[in-house]
Amino acid sequence: MNKDWPLWEVFVRSKNGLEHRHFGSLRAADAEMAINNARDVYTRRSEGVSIWVVESKNITASNPEHNGELFEPAADKAYRHPTFYDLPDDIEHM
Amino acid sequence: MKNNENMKEQEKQTKSLEEVFEAKIARDEKIEPKDWMPEKYRKTHIRQISQHAHSEIVGMLPEGNWITRAPSLRRKVALLAKVQDEAGHGLYLYSACETLGISREEMYEQLHSGKAKYSSIFNYPTLTWADMGAIGWLVDGAAIINQVPLCNTSFGPYARAMVRVCKEESFHQRQGYEIMMTLCNGTQEQKEMAQDALNRWWWPSLMMLGPTDDESTHTEQSMKWKLKRKTNDELRQQFIDQTVPQADILGLTIPDADLKYNNDTGHYDFGEIDWEEFWQVVKGHGMCNKERISARKNAWENGKWVRDAAVAYAEKQAEKQAVKKAV
Amino acid sequence: MTNENLIQYIYSIADNSLILGQRLGELCGHGPTLETDIAITNIALDLLGQTRSYYQYVAELSKEDLTEDDVAFLRKEREYKNVLLVEQPNTDFAYIIARQYFFDVYHFLLLEKMMDSKNVNLQAIAKKSMKEVAYHKRFSGDWLKRLGDGTEESHQKMQQAVKDLWVYTDELFHMNEDDEIVTKAGFGIDNAALKDAYYQEIEALLKESTIEIPTTSYFQKGGKKGIHTEHMGYILADMQYMQRTYPDMKW
């Protein structure tokens, strides 16, 4: 038998109130081990209060070749941003 | 005929892709794993990042050699934590490298077969406790000079790994310097131990910053890709300039009769480096080359049944889960 | 109860953490994966941290002007009171895991009780260490299951390790004279009372791991009285090397 441990992506919440952020990856044979390894590898200096792990192969990523069609159309929709609208300077609470 | 035209068309396309790519790096934009990249960029990065990762894990061995013999409990936990960090750094770097389409196992294979290099300094033996001080002070000092600029390198995963590495590594050099300081404030015997360690680690540390610029093959391309910000000789000068005053504070003598501050340049002039020795160690003739590689190989080979068992267990558990669901 | 009784009692707890921490420290850089290296080092660091807390307390209690390092490094072999289990060598990963698990389960039960000790120092150390040891037990227990119920090869190795180390488990529950005195005073823990819960927990996990529970009519003992296996001398030779070669220096 020759099977290597799969790769996992690790997401850590540094403190309550913050989102889980991608911290890196590691190898583990199963989810339980991935959590334990993540704890040992990525939170040695009290970096976290919660850990998510997901096997890397289960992540579907967008293809950078499609970046044009996926992301560029959003660039000229300035009306989605508050600065698009002209209001007199002395209006408050808006 | 048609084939030929196709190829030309392809070449043209690649060329324009390459121009876009280089422009992107020049604008300080990051390259991410799934982005198009020239084959050479991928290969160079695999080589450099894996070499860096190998250096971290081979680098665990000379210091690991002193964990059981550390002279106080405080020193023992600090050294253990430091060597552990090196395992972590190896892991971050292997992971960054894996995003380029090579597995950690393949990289290990290259290390074990001697195809991949690692920093030659780890082929020197650690003979006394003072070596733990000298390594932290000098070797980590030289490493930091190399590594800090890499936090801004063009390949995103590498840059991110380096940010983490640099953050964690900040205690390593201090740990080493504190050991040296304690020795230098101690008995005559301790001070001699410290001086002896400096004598043995000084030149290898200078060599660690790489061959001289005229001997270095990768520099120009590496500069463009922000794998390097300064040349080897510039880095070496920086290292010497910052380390000499630190040795003065310790009251230790740098083992170089030609070392002298140059008022005109504002830098230290230094003596000839024994590059013959450097290349011998690179070629595998250092005192510990064989031990280091065989230690890594043994760890990996003796661990195979353990890794296999974990996979087999995970599969059995998954099957059990599936059966449970089906029922 | 004298201070000396209490000191001896603390040795019988703290020396376990020191010697096991020392054993685990040998492994750093040689494990089956980087991830396990990092995990095992974390356990070693926890154990050595606990050791320091205990020895600092011993140094306070002692009439002489001792430091934690004098206590750790300058005793003679017969003065170390760790159980034989923790000094057993890192034969292979199965031994490392079995040794760890056999110790962790005991360690957890002990600390649980120690949180109610009438001695506030021991109480405080127990409180802090409990969480660490809960994780150790989880790590070693998980691995015991993986190796026990993994491949044919790992199963055999795990079975062998369990069989060989089983003979050292009984000693965990022995009480030497100092243990008795300190326990009567309400500071110590009655080890013997932990025994049933210990074997119940271990046997359940071994069963789950498809590992046969060894039967033996004889158990090894001696560590708690300072009579160690031959391994101990080498552990100390290594550990005490600097302090013995260069006496009375600061490091």
From TrEMBL, chain A:
It comes from the Bacteria. NCBIfam families: PA_CoA_Oxy2 (TIGR02157). This is Phenylacetate-CoA oxygenase subunit PaaB. InterPro entries: PaaB (IPR009359), PaaB_sf (IPR038693). Pfam families: PaaB.
UniProtKB/TrEMBL annotation, chain B:
Coiled coil: none annotated. This is Phenylacetate-CoA oxygenase subunit PaaA. GO terms for cellular component: cytosol. The gene is paaA. It comes from Psychroflexus salis. GO terms for biological process: phenylacetate catabolic process. Pfam families: PaaA_PaaC (PF05138). GO terms for molecular function: phenylacetyl-CoA 1,2-epoxidase activity.
TrEMBL record, chain C:
It holds the Pfam family PaaA_PaaC. Signal peptide: none annotated. GO terms for biological process: phenylacetate catabolic process. InterPro entries: Aromatic_CoA_ox/epox, Ferritin-like, Ferritin-like_SF, PaaA_PaaC, PaaC. GO terms for cellular component: cytosol. It comes from the Bacteria. This is 1,2-phenylacetyl-CoA epoxidase, subunit C.
